[in-house]
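We keep the chain:
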Amino acid sequence: MAGAQSNSLLIDSMQRLKLGDQTALAEVYQATSAKLFGICLRILGDRSEAEDALQDVYVSLWTNAGQFDARRASPISWLATFARNRSIDRIRRSGRLRAAEPITAAEQVADGAPTAVAVLIEGEDRARIHSCLGQLEDRQRESIRAAFFEGFSYPELAARASIPLGTMKSLIRRGLARLKECLEQ
């Protein structure tokens, strides 16, 4: 996810999490765990402790999701505060302060977000596909979009268009061949 879109998707997931949606918790974890682990690792200085603290963060999130207010903080800021607090709590409970690892240790933590280059390439590919789709006949274009972007099966498409199944398959096959030619140019 990138920028404002990722923030709005994260806010949506946080709102669903308030209602006990487990899928939303998985989405929040996927979008934030690398960054939050980096925070925990930086504060705790120990990978195992950081992993435990990160688990505490998501357990706390599950039980306290109702406290999140998008008008007061962004989801990542709110969660970063959780990570920071859980990490400090672990240090306090252990009764000893540990030397923090240098910030360069966080470089080893994988960030699941696509790189800027990957986002640009994906955008260019998407634009190219839509441009090539625009060059197809209306019936081919709409059938391909319905099949591949909306999930309709060939029999469903044939029934919607009131044409035989074989004709629909041929229509899509020819459209895909033209699409392939266009994309290879």
In short: The radius of gyration is 24 Å. The chain is about 75% helix and 0% strand. The first helix runs from residue 3 to 18.
